[in-house]
Every structure is written in C-alpha cells, then in structure tokens.
Design brief:
2 copies of one chain form a homodimer. With 423 residues, chain A is α/β, with parallel strands linked by helices. Chain A folds into 4 domains: 10-25 and 185-328, MoaB/Mog-like domain (Molybdenum Cofactor Biosythetic Enzyme, Chain A), CATH 3.40.980; 28-46 and 159-183, Molybdopterin biosynthesis moea protein, domain 2 (Alpha-Beta Complex), CATH 3.90.105.10; 54-145, Molybdopterin biosynthesis moeA protein, domain 3, CATH 2.170.190; 337-411, MoeA, C-terminal, domain IV (Beta-clip). The first copy, chain A, has helices at 10-18, 166-174, 213-224, 238-249, 269-276, 310-328; strands spanning 26-30, 43-44, 54-55, 59-62, 76-84, 98-102, 114-117, 122-126, 129-134, 144-145, 156-158, 179-183, 187-193, 197-198, 209-210, 227-234, 254-258, 279-282, 287-288, 294-298, 301-306, 337-343, 354-363, 369-373, 390-394, 406-411. In chain A, the strands form 7 sheets. Chain A has a 6-stranded mixed sheet, with no helix packed on it. In chain A, strands 16-13-17-21-20-18 form a 6-stranded mixed sheet, sandwiched between helices. In chain A, strand 8 (122-126) and strand 9 form a beta hairpin. In chain A, helix 1 packs parallel to helix 6 and helix 3 (213-224) packs parallel to helix 6 (310-328). The relative contact order of chain A is 0.13. The interface between A and B is large, with 115 and 115 residues.
C-alpha cells in the first residue's frame, strides 16, 4: 500500500539539483533602485581614484625645493598668491617662494609637490598680501593623495553575483554608473496544497490551520533575491491541481508547491509530476526535517515539492532552492555560508538521517560561534523559525551529539555564501 | 585661525545622541508587504498551536483500550469505519474495535486517543469493509500532536522592534495577521555639500570627484530600515545652503549632510547650525575615521553633519545615526551587534584616537571569528567599504595591536543588534 522510497544523501540531492543551475537574464536599473540587487557584470574601474593628485588636508600647497634649509633658526617665508577649495583648479603659475592656500580634496597646483598643514605654519599679511612662515623642510609628496593611489584604472573591483551594499553603491557612484547592470530577479511561483488550509484572513475552523508556508516561503524567496508570486491554494483534487500547475509553470522560472509530497492518500504531487512529464530528481532525502522533499525537472525549469510541514518546508527551500536562485543571480557562492560552531545543548538520540535544526547562533565572550536550537525542534514547530539565523548540521550517527562539541552550521543571513558546503 | 575643538570619547558622543532617541509612528501594512519591516507591537498567540489534537503521521486513529493485550500471538482486528484527510473532520462515533484511516495533520476523532502508522498494521478488507490487524499494544497519546503543544494562547512570541523575517512571516500568517502592525519608516533626508562634487551622470572634470557619499548613505539608511530622500548637492555658499536645509528639515525625521563639517574655509555647517539655532551636541570625537563628525539637535530632530570623507561618513552613520533609526523602529537593541574576533594583521602604530577600521570578518576552521581590514585603511579609500561586513574597534593606545590579538568588532549585517556595545 505504502510506496517505498529510497533516500539519497543531502550531498547527492544538492548535486542533482545543481545540474540545472544557470545564470539568469540581465537588466539595467537606476542607481537609485539598485541597492540590494545582484551585479550581473564585474565592476571595473574606468578611471584612477583619485583621478588627480590632491591635498589630503587643509593647508598650503608649496614647492618643497623652496624649503630646503628651512629650520627654526632659518624660517622661510612664502607668498600666498591664490586659494582653492575642493573642486576648484588653480589657474596661476606658482613661482619661487610662492604658495597656494588649499583645502582637503583640492587638486594640487601643477607647480607644487607637497602640502603643509595650517597647524604648522605662521600666517601673516603685509599690504593685504598674505604670507606664511615655515620653519622646517618638507619632503616632496607630503600630505598628498596621489592619482591612482586608491584604485588604478582597469582594476576589477567587485565580481558579478555580489549583492549591492552601501560600500558598493559608493563605488558605482564614483565610477559614474547612473544605470547599474544587475541580474533580473527570477520569478518564483508558489502554490500551497492541502484541503486543511485556511487563508490568513479566514477565521479558524475545527480541523483546519492557516496557510503559513506560502507567506514564509515568499519571504525566503525575497531573502534569496528573487520575486515571489503566490498563486493561492490548491485543493487536494487531481485535475484542478494539475491544470493550475501546468498553466502557471509557463509564467515562472521556478515553481514551488508546499505539501502533497508525502505518501498519504491525498498527496497528489507525485502523480501530477508524472502527468506533466517532469523528471523526478529525487523524492526522498536522508535528512530531517524535509525527508519527503521532492524536486523535478521539466524543460529547463525546476519544480520543488516542498513538505507541507513548516520547518521541513523552510529547510528544503534553503538547501535546494536558494542556491538555484543565487546562480540565476550570477553568484559563484550560491549555497548557504557554512561555519564551525560550538553546540550549546545535548542531542543524545541517534540520527539515521542528517539533521538540520533551526538554530540561533551568537558570539560569546570566548570569540567562538555558539549554536542553540531556536525553540523546540520538532518539524511542525513553527515558532522555532522566528529566531533561526542558522541551521545546525548533525550528520547521522548512532550516539547523538554532546553539548560543547564542534559542529557545522549554515548561516541563513550571511550574504557571502559558500561554493559548496557539502564535503 | 584654526578653531580649536575638544574631542570627546565615542561612548560619550553616542550617549549624547541617544538622549534624543524616541519610538516612531505605527502603521498597518498587508502581510504581503511586511517582509523586512519592523514590528511595532509584540506578537502574541491568539490561539493554541495546534488548535486541536491532531495526527502526526499517516495511519489509523484508534482507541488504545481496544488494543490491550494485543501481541504477535494475539493480534487484534479493528474495523475501519471512516477516513479523513487533513482539514476534514470525522462525523462518526468510533465504537469498540473500530478505527479511522487518518492523514497527517487531520484532527483526531474525539473517541480515539492514539494513531498507529500505516507501516505497522496489516490492512485487509472483507465484503468491501476494510479492517486492520495490529499485533502490539499502543499507549494513549502515541503519534499525536497535542493542542497547545507548540504554542499556548496568550504567549508573547516576538517582541516589537524585531525585523520581520521568513520565520516571523509564518507566525503572522498562523495567527491571522492579514494586516501587520509595523513601525512607520522614518524619513531621512540627505544633502551632499561640496563644490568639488559631480553627480553620478556627469563626466569627470579636473579637480572634481563624483558624489559617492549620498548614494552610499542612502543604502545605509535603507539597511537601517528607514526611507532615504536625497535633496541633491549644496554648493559651498552659505545663504543658499542655510535656506535649503531650513526648508527641507520640515519634511524629514532626521537630516544628514555629508561634508562641510571640518575647519576648512568652505566648511559651512558649523555656521549653518548656529543660524538655525540648533544645539551642537559635539563637533569632535576621539575616533578615526570620522573625528569631525558633528551632531546637532533642533526641536526634537537630529541633524547629522557627517564627514565628506567616504569612510568617515560611513562609520559616522553606523555609529551615530543607525541606532537612532532603530529606536524609531522600536528596537531595544539599536546599536551594531558586537562580537569578539581575532585580529588578522598587525596594527603597530600608536592610536591617539579609537580606530574603527572597515573589515571583513569570516569564520575559519577553528570556529573563531577572524577580522581583516577590507582594502587599504585610509579614510579616503572608498574601495575598502565594498567588502566591509564589520568595523574592527582598536581603542587608543601607544603600542598598536598585533596579529592574533583578541579585539571587538561591530557586525554591520547582523540584525540582532546590541543594547549598548560601548563599555
């Protein structure tokens, strides 16, 4: 009566999914709208930074040659013949024993080769002609920022696939990217399945629960960088469900369903995948929660049958769907970022399958990352997800794990990502 | 000639700013639009979860009393009189030696007290009447999820000020929040000052640089959770700048300017603050970069004079502006999250002021957080910001710091935050 499914390892399951990774489409958006988007091209410096030699301080631009031999006993006087603020350019020639008052960031006059700061000169004026007195020698190059000192033209600064953050915004502005080339956001469709589901605005009924998975997955899709489209609920009725999925599949890059992938009497997804002609990559993974996660492939598109169980659904998305979205977004590190952490609680039961428990990691005084389960760790426990910022990986073993052991975690909020955390 | 300013400590400067912290306004948004927003009220469970006793597996709901004495030698047969999927409710009374076929998540019929899984029964049928044979006793409560097991009605689940993430979305949906109470985003206005600035779409000119600070700060404001409004550039002309700031101040919750706060000839902000009648909280902080950061207060609004220097501007925002925004958003941990890390490079020069260097933190095999400067650490070096996910704090000392030392870092991307990292 019950279909027998053969579980495969998480690593093998991820490998099967990643066969279908591909980079997405490109578009240009205004710099005002690019924050948080993913670059689809490398940013290359199109000019030196600074693009000219400039003063690093407020002071006076001088010719160091004029100050040879200057000392407390032999101070040297320079005539101040011009003054320039940042953005202004000195139009005069600077001759022997002449100087220019200059502000931070202003371009060094071409006849000068150093700057002395306000604080180290004596200022005066004679017949409205200002002068300065300097009592020390000054090396050429003093207090300057040199052309190209920060960045040389032609240097690759940020690689494609990187999420745009405030620092990258500064680079984009510096190099004149009024339009920014970013990855188009893939469209990820969602159906929730299950006759037991009420919508969020429906009153609670006996035997029913509100649909929480669709809203959760929408937020996960956004966090991954894609655009979610919620197509509503499917009743556990084959023909309607099949027709709805077939129709909507056209309009999305990835299609997610929640629920209906187990082996219960009303779990229709396996039959729907068959009728669609989709190739099922796997329907059982040696992991908890999420062992019934099913992924299928049809005409270049992936169909994710995530569990109806909130935690299993959550984990299935992060492990199998997020990296596909990140590859669409040109990332070379599409998987969740992995890290080593100290287990904060005993887990003394044997695991036949790899466990991913929803965890809160934190940094203690000892400088180590510590991981504790966020809420009770049963796969139906929705509250454990609210404070999860990591998944702790407990590989299958017969003895469980003890508090204080070193374990691997996958960080849910870290943008850097991993190339392949499944060693 | 040069104004003498007295630097105050970072801790004292933050303390002065935080005198003016206040919680912002509230609004309701659709659950479809609340991801990433900040809750302005605690989320309290308005019903038990589960809201009824339900089956944790696909199987048969039974009365454990019927199976007393069942064994391999003495298997007991139950008549299967109904079947229910999740969302369905059994309408029949279940009598002696009767059972109901039940799917995961379905409500337990009131006459039953346990579930046996498909896998452990033998199914058969006689004259179309299905039956099951069970060869073991079953304890009451087996394979059930009990009402209130996950959450009891009335429990506070998430505190106000928390950023809505996928797990919180699931909770909101579960408890029927079609509309979600969130903090209104404060409006943060930005002026860039400086005659040297070109807009992002202008070609490079001699002596000028493109305005990168405004775009960077806009992204920082978004990351903090507020709405940026860019008012454009101000030339270094007093009356125009004063009028523009006075006018725009009306329309914002916080006003930021970049540049113009130093003691150069064209640094107009001190005079503008005076003419506005704003109380200057400080104009010199014992920190690098960002020592000229100036914060003023006028009629309940804060005016931030951030440095024109990109790195100084960046650090000034994160230390002084972000916590004010997060308090508007009802957060009780508004400051950057602090952590302990291992310094990845020598910093052997003496610091008179506390240094905040833009850093990339990462987790190595040893489970420790490691911090290295992201790019060259000079305050004008814009590229160092692109890869910064932390600020490393090096308190002033006379000997510098050695590679391998334990230092504190502030994590730029972590949402949890700190109550007060300035001990």
């Amino acid at each position: 009566m019950v279909e027998k499914r053969i579980p495969i390892s998480v690593k093998e399951a991820v490998t099967r999914v990643m066969q279908f990774e591909k980079e997405g489409k490109k578009e240009e958006v205004s710099i005002y709208e690019c924050n948080g988007r993913f670059l689809c091209e490398d940013i290359v410096a199109n000019h030196d930074v600074p693009s000219f030699d400039r003063s690093a301080y407020d002071g006076f631009a001088i010719r160091s040659v004029d100050l040879k031999g200057a000392s407390k006993e032999n101070p040297i006087t320079l005539s101040v013949i011009d003054e320039i603020g940042a953005g202004q350019v000195c139009q005069k020639r600077i001759g022997e024993y002449e100087a220019v008052r200059i502000m931070t960031g202003a371009m060094l006059p071409s006849d000068c080769d150093a700057v002395v700061m306000f604080e180290v000169v004596i200022e005066g004026s004679e017949n409205t002609q200002p002068y300065i007195i300097i009592d020390h020698e000054v090396e050429t190059g003093t207090n300057l920022s040199f052309q190209g000192e920060d960045v040389k033209k032609g240097k690759t600064l940020v690689e494609k696939g990187t999420k745009i953050n405030p620092g990258i915004m500064a680079l984009l502005a510096t190099f004149g990217y009024a339009k920014v080339p970013v990855a188009k956001k893939p469209i990820v469709g969602i159906f929730a399945t299950g006759t037991e589901l009420l919508e969020v605005d429906e009153p609670l009924e006996k035997g029913k629960i509100r649909n929480s998975n669709a809203y959760m997955v929408m937020a996960q899709i956004e966090r991954a960088g894609a655009t979610p489209v919620y197509f509503g609920k499917l009743q556990d009725v084959f023909t309607e469900s099949y027709e709805a999925m077939k129709e909507k599949l056209e309009s999305v890059d990835v299609l997610i369903t929640t629920g209906g992938v187990s082996v219960g009497d009303y779990d229709l997804l396996p039959a729907i995948y068959r009728k669609l002609g989709a190739e099922v990559l796997f329907n059982k993974v040696a992991m908890r929660p999420g062992s019934v996660t099913t992924v299928a492939h049809l005409d270049g598109k992936l169909l994710y049958g995530l569990s109806g169980n909130p935690s299993a659904c959550y984990v299935g998305f992060e492990i199998f769907t997020k990296p596909i979205i990140r590859r669409y977004l040109f990332s070379s590190k599409p998987h969740l970022q992995s890290a080593s952490a100290i287990l904060g609680e005993d887990f003394l039961t044997a695991n036949a399958f790899t466990r991913f428990f929803r965890s809160t990691v934190s940094w203690k005084e000892d400088g180590l990352l510590h991981t504790v389960p966020s809420g009770v760790d049963k796969s139906n426990i929705v509250t454990s997800l609210a404070f999860a910022n990591a998944l702790t990986i407990l590989p299958s073993n017969s003895t469980g794990y003890q508090k204080g052991e070193r374990v691997n975690v996958l960080l849910l909020e870290e943008e850097a990502g991993s190339e392949w955390p499944w060693n």
